[in-house]
Amino acid sequence: MAFHTVFLVFLAGLAFFSEAAPPDSADSKHPLFIKILDSVQGSPAPNVQVKLYKEAADGSWELLNSKQTSENGELHELTTKEQFVTGIYKIELDTASYWKRLGLNPFHHHADVVFTANDAGYRHYSIAVLLSPFSYTTTAVVSEPVE
């Protein structure tokens, strides 16, 4: 029950505080924001390896970038406005390495989030992930189209 309460508060907070970056801000150049939380410790999940792929015409996945989350579980600079064109994307989180560093043996080796981006105009995406060793939950806040 406590998990569900914390998760609902997290989702409400994300939705309340998330909004599109102003067109001239530094974040407007980085349209994809990722926040990862560790539900076991109740804290951000630092140093999680994150890979961003774009689906190619033949259905294969092209690796665009690979970075780690910061100490506060966030990742802002995974892609640029110029690179983030209309298409299907996959975010792959290396959850097994994260949990093994903490001495736990997880069920999932990685968590994938696959989504269509910018099919109705250029948008900013905030993707939140709540991790445990045996499950993960994601949610997204997507801005209205921006220029």
Automatic annotation (TrEMBL):
Q: What keywords is this UniProt entry annotated with?
A: Hormone, Secreted, Signal, Sulfation, Thyroid hormone, Transport
What Gene3D superfamilies does the record tag this protein with? Transthyretin/hydroxyisourate hydrolase domain
User: Alphabetically, which GO biological process terms does the record hold?
Assistant: purine nucleobase metabolic process
Give the UniProt subcellular location, in the record's own words.
Answer: Secreted
Q: Where is the Transthyretin/hydroxyisourate hydrolase domain?
A: 27-147
What cellular-component terms does GO give this entry?
A: extracellular space
Provide the primary localization.
Answer: secreted
Question: Can you name one GO molecular function term for this protein?
Answer: hormone activity
Span of the secretion signal? 1-20
| UniProt record similarity statement | Belongs to the transthyretin family.
Q: How does it assemble?
A: Homotetramer.
* Function of the molecule: Thyroid hormone-binding protein. Probably transports thyroxine from the bloodstream to the brain.
The name of this protein is Transthyretin
Identify the species of origin: Podilymbus podiceps (Pied-billed grebe)
Q: Which gene encodes it?
A: Ttr_1
